[in-house]
Design goal:
Length: 188
């Protein structure tokens, strides 16, 4: 019976849909697992896009979205003919979840998929550490895209989010002072 329940989840993951995971615990101490769901930009389930920001000054964009109003601050609707999916998550989502967004403007990957892949997602006390691998872009590409992660996490007290790219710390959100990595909300 367990195999039958696991099969659809494996098929969805192989098809490129969101990934569900549990945070790892590198210290070996017993900690409550932190559930998350990874939603990539390549197969984003909503008809919206991340608004522009000054990527020369801030190559990496990251924000914690805790409400529908904050989502509208960072994302804009994108009308797509024939696409009936919603423009944004249902506002009820924010009663139990937050969205962590990490993105950068880059050349696309050779395979057309996202270059971002989560390696570890660790929560201890009120601090979250995100470790992701950033793959190599297609050097032949002459255009750029916004690529990144949207991570759905259970709503819980969070004081700080540390972001590590290829095992190197690239940013930190001090939630008590700000929920985004740039000085101003993204440009329209």
């Amino acid at each position: 019976m367990k195999k039958l329940l696991l099969l659809p989840l494996v098929m969805l993951m192989l098809a490129g849909f969101s990934t569900i995971g549990t945070a790892e615990n590198p210290s070996g101490k017993v900690r409550k697992p932190c559930q998350y769901e990874q939603i990539g930009f390549a197969d984003y389930p909503y008809r919206s896009f991340l608004k522009n920001w000054n990527d020369d000054a801030h190559p990496l964009f990251y924000a914690l979205i805790r409400s529908a109003e904050e989502y509208d601050t960072f994302f804009a609707p994108a009308a797509v003919m024939g696409n009936k999916s919603p423009y944004a998550p249902d506002p009820e989502l924010y009663r139990t979840y937050n969205l962590l967004v990490v993105a950068r403007v880059t050349k696309p990957a050779q395979n057309g998929k996202s270059m971002f892949s989560i390696e570890k997602f660790v929560k201890h006390n009120d601090i979250i550490e995100l470790y992701y691998k950033l793959g190599r872009p297609d050097r032949k590409a002459t255009w750029t895209i916004k690529d990144g992660l949207v991570i759905k996490i259970e709503k819980a007290p969070i004081r700080k989010i540390v972001i590590c790219e290829n095992n190197r710390k690239v940013g930190e959100l001090d939630i008590e002072h700000s929920v985004l990595s740039v000085e101003k909300p993204p440009m329209k």
